[in-house]
Write a structure and sequence with these properties.
The complex is a heterodimer.
Chain A (H helix, E strand, L loop, with lengths): L1 H6 L1 H11 L1 H10 L3 H5 L13 H9 L2 H31 L6 H13 L6 H10 L6 H9 L4 H13 L2 H9 L4 H12 L1 H17 L2 H6 L9 H11 L4 H21 L1 H13 L1
Chain B lengths: L1 H12 L1 H28 L17 H7 L2 H32 L7 H13 L2 H11 L6 H8 L16 H26 L3 H9 L4 H28 L3 H7 L11 H9 L9 H34 L1
Classes of the chains: A mainly alpha, B mainly alpha.
Chain lengths: ~270, ~300
C-alpha cells in the first residue's frame, strides 16, 4: 500500500517539471545569445551565457522605466486599498452604527454582480477628473472598485477585538481616531499583511487597466503592458523577450516564495469562511 | 417623533464611524455603482467618447449587439472558458488535491508549490512566453514534437483558427489550475481525520472512503469553489489580448476583447463607446443570470451552516 502511493512520484515528478518548464525556458533563454536561439538550441544550459539580452531589455526596450512604473503603481494601489478597507472595516466592525447592515449587504451583493465590463465608464470618469495623464488615473481605476473581501477581512478582525481594550483607551482620554491609529490598527498587523500581499500581487499582475490608461503615454507603461508592446514591436527578439519576462516575473515570484505560507493560508481561509 | 429623535441621536453619536466609512463610500459610488449605471446610460447613445454623449439612438446599439454574429461568437468563447474551468479544471484539481492531501506522500509541499507557481505570475507576460515557445518556426515545442516524430510538420498553435482556441484554453487551464487546487486542499482539510480513522477501522477500501466520505463531505464547500472558479474564469482578457488579440479570424475572440476592440483599439477608426457598453451590459446580464442560478446552492449551504 505504501509503495503504491510512492509510485505516484513516477508520474508527479515529470508532470511537475513539465508544469514549470516555461519558467525554466524563460531563464535559460534569457542568458542565451540570439545566434544560439536562432540555431534552435534546445539545451537548458546556454552554450555561451551572456547578459546582452538583459542590457537590451533594460535600456533599449525601457524595462528599467517599466519596472519603476510598476513599483510605483503597485505601491500606490496597495496604500489606497489598505487605507480605505482598514477605515471602512473599522467603522463597520466596531459598534452598531445605524445603516451598518445595509452597507454590508450592498457590499456582499456587489461580489456577485459581474463588473469586469465597466472599464469604459471608469475610464471616462478618470478622464473627467483630469487624471488621465498620469499613473494616478490607473491607480484610481485599479484601487477604486470596492475590494469587498479586504473590507470584510478587516471588519471581521476588528469586531473580534475585546471591548475592554477600547474602553480602557477611552478612559485614558483617547479619541476615536487615536484608538484606531494607536491601539486597534497595530493589532491588525496580520490582516494588513494579508491584504497588502494579495493587493500587491494583483496590482503587479494587472494588465487591462494599465493598458487602457497608458495607450497615449508609452513612458508610463507597467511591465505587463511593456511586455505586450515589446512583443508587438520586436516579435522575433526571443532572447530579449525572455530577458524582459525574467525582469517582470522575478520580483513577483520572489515575493511569493518568501511569503507563500501567508498566501496559501489566506486563500484557504477565504474558502473556509 | 421619539423614534426619529433617537435615530438622529444615534447617527450623531456615530459621526466618527461615518467619517471613517466615507473614503470607501466615495470610491464605491464612483468606481463600482456609477460605472454599472453609466454602462446602461451610455448604451443608448451613438458616442465616440469625445465630449458628453449627445446622439440618442434608443435601443439601436442593443439590437445591433444581439444581431451581431461576431458578438455571439465572442460570447460563446467566453462561456467555453467557464465551461472548461468548471467542467475540466474543477474535477482534475480535485483528483490532484486528494493525491496531494495524503500526508504519507513525500514532497507534497514541493509539488503543490510547483503547480501553484503559474497563478502568481503576470498573465500577459506568460501569455507572450507561450506565444514564443509555441511558434511554428523554431519554437521549442514544435521542434521537440516534430523531432520525436509526434507531429509530421510544425503546427501553428496560436496562429491557425483550428488550434488557437484549444491552445489558449489549455494555457488558461495551466494558469488557473493552482488556485482551484489550493481551494480543494483547503476543503479537504476541513474533514476531521477521525472520520477517516473510523472508516479504516470499519475496513473501508480507498474507493469506498472517497465515494462515501470525502465527496459527500466536500459538497457544501464545493458550491463556494464552483462560484469562485466560475467568476475568475469569466475574464480571460489578459491572456487573449497578449497572445492572439482574439484572432486569428476571431477564433479566440471573447467578450472582453470584443469590447476593448470597439472602445480602445488604436487601429479602430472611431471608437464606439455606446456600442461597446451595450455589449458589456448584455454580457453582464447573462453572467448575472448564471451566477444567480448558483444562488440556491449557496443559500442551502448558508442555511445548513447557520441551522
Amino acid at each position: 500500500m505504501r509503495y503504491r502511493l510512492q509510485l505516484w512520484h513516477a508520474f508527479l515528478v515529470p508532470f511537475a517539471l513539465m508544469w514549470i518548464y516555461p519558467f525554466v525556458w524563460v531563464v535559460s533563454s534569457a542568458f542565451k545569445s540570439q545566434r544560439e536561439m536562432l540555431l534552435g538550441g534546445l539545451s537548458v544550459w546556454p552554450a555561451e551565457p551572456t547578459f546582452d539580452n538583459f542590457v537590451r531589455a533594460w535600456q533599449v526596450a525601457n524595462f528599467g522605466e517599466y519596472t519603476l512604473n510598476t513599483v510605483v503603481f503597485s505601491a500606490a494601489v496597495v496604500t489606497v486599498v489598505v487605507f480605505v478597507s482598514a477605515t471602512a472595516g473599522y467603522a463597520l466592525g466596531r459598534g452598531q452604527m445605524p445603516g451598518k447592515k445595509i452597507v454590508v449587504g450592498v457590499l456582499i451583493a456587489t461580489m456577485f454582480i459581474p463588473h469586469g465590463y465597466t472599464i469604459i465608464p471608469v475610464f471616462k470618469l478618470v478622464d473627467e477628473l483630469g487624471l488621465n495623464n498620469g499613473l494616478i488615473g490607473a491607480v484610481l481605476a485599479a484601487a477604486g472598485p470596492a475590494h469587498v473581501v479586504q473590507i470584510l477581512l478587516f471588519m471581521g478582525y476588528f469586531s473580534s477585538l475585546p471591548q475592554e481594550l477600547e474602553d480602557a483607551a477611552r478612559i485614558d482620554g483617547a479619541g476615536y481616531v487615536r484608538i484606531f491609529w494607536q491601539v486597534m490598527l497595530p493589532l491588525a498587523k496580520p490582516i494588513i499583511g494579508t491584504v497588502t500581499l494579495f493587493t500587491f500581487i494583483s496590482a503587479w499582475n494587472a494588465f487591462m487597466v494599465p493598458l487602457v490608461f497608458t495607450l497615449g503615454r508609452p513612458d508610463l507603461r507597467t511591465l505587463g503592458v511593456g511586455m505586450y508592446s515589446f512583443f508587438g514591436q520586436y516579435t522575433a527578439d526571443w532572447t530579449g523577450l525572455a530577458a524582459a519576462a525574467c525582469i517582470s516575473l522575478l520580483p513577483i515570484v520572489t515575493v511569493f516564495l518568501c511569503l507563500q505560507r501567508t498566501f496559501v493560508e489566506g486563500i484557504a481561509g477565504a474558502v473556509k469562511s | 417623533m421619539t423614534a426619529r429623535h433617537t435615530l438622529a441621536a444615534r447617527i450623531a453619536k456615530h459621526r466618527w464611524h461615518y467619517l471613517f466609512l466615507t473614503p470607501m463610500v466615495v470610491l464605491f459610488v464612483g468606481f463600482t455603482a456609477w460605472p454599472m449605471l453609466a454602462s446602461w446610460w451610455y448604451a443608448f447613445f451613438d458616442w465616440d467618447g469625445l465630449g458628453p454623449p449627445t446622439s440618442w439612438v434608443g435601443l439601436a446599439n442593443f439590437s445591433e449587439v444581439l444581431g451581431s454574429p461576431a458578438f455571439w461568437n465572442a460570447f460563446k468563447n467566453s462561456f467555453l472558458f467557464s465551461l472548461v474551468a468548471v467542467g475540466v479544471q474543477m474535477p482534475l484539481t480535485l483528483l490532484f488535491a486528494i493525491l496531494l492531501n495524503n500526508p504519507r506522500l513525500r514532497g507534497r509541499n514541493l509539488y503543490r508549490l510547483f503547480l501553484f507557481l503559474p497563478v502568481v505570475t503576470t498573465t500577459a507576460v506568460v501569455g507572450i512566453v507561450f506565444a514564443v515557445m509555441l511558434d511554428p518556426a523554431g519554437g521549442f515545442v514544435n521542434e521537440i514534437l516534430t523531432g520525436v516524430g509526434l507531429l509530421p510538420e510544425p503546427v501553428n498553435f496560436l496562429g491557425s483558427d483550428r488550434t488557437a482556441l484549444a491552445t489558449v484554453l489549455v494555457i488558461d487551464l495551466w494558469k488557473g489550475f493552482g488556485i482551484t487546487l489550493i481551494y480543494w486542499l483547503a476543503a479537504l482539510q476541513t474533514i476531521p481525520p477521525d472520520v477517516y480513522e473510523a472508516a479504516k477501522v470499519d475496513g473501508a477500501t480507498a474507493r469506498q472512503v472517497l465515494r462515501h466520505i470525502t465527496v459527500p463531505m466536500l459538497v457544501p464547500i464545493a458550491t463556494v469553489i464552483l462560484l469562485l472558479t466560475f467568476q475568475s474564469s469569466m475574464n480571460p482578457f489578459d491572456l487573449i489580448q497578449a497572445t492572439t488579440k482574439g484572432g486569428p479570424n476571431y477564433a479566440t475572440d471573447v467578450v472582453a476583447t470584443y469590447i476593448y476592440r470597439y472602445a480602445f483599439d488604436p487601429q479602430m477608426a472611431a471608437p464606439r463607446y455606446g456600442f461597446a457598453c451595450a455589449a458589456g451590459v448584455v454580457f453582464g446580464m447573462c453572467t448575472l443570470l448564471l451566477t444567480l442560478l448558483q444562488a440556491p446552492l449557496l443559500r442551502r449551504r448558508y442555511l445548513k451552516a447557520s441551522g
